[in-house]
Amino acid sequence: MIKTCSHCQQEKELTAYYQFWDRWTGRKYPSSRCKPCHQMYRSTNPNTKRNRKADKLKLRYGLDHERWQEIRHEQNYSCMVCGVTEEALGKKLDVDHCHTSGVVRGVLCNPCNTMLGHARDKIEVLEAAVEYLRKNSGGYKS
Known about the structure:
By secondary structure, the chain is of the alpha+beta class. It contains 6 helices and 6 strands. Strand 1 (2-4) and strand 2 form a beta hairpin. The longest helix has 14 residues, at 123-136.
């Protein structure tokens, strides 16, 4: 079957288009742009997920998207605290940063990142939590 790309206006086979899944109709449909045009659109459109992520990283942490990718690669795509991987999580790791200085420390899974945030980045709070768990692992003692 032949389809015309909405961007370059060339007629191409359906294999030249990405297939998307419509969960409401329960069927696949081809992209309106051919694969090369679609890739160009994704790299330049500010509303694509990657570009929104890049804007958020720059605004919140002063990181560009490439540096974020490097950090994830250097950490083997795993949380620095518990070691869970992005593959096991099914999503990307969060950027961890010091709330006082704003310095990026690495990438963590959301539960570990949230744990540090709830502890207000205070080592004493985390050490007290460890001690609490050691003393009370058997349950409440009256």
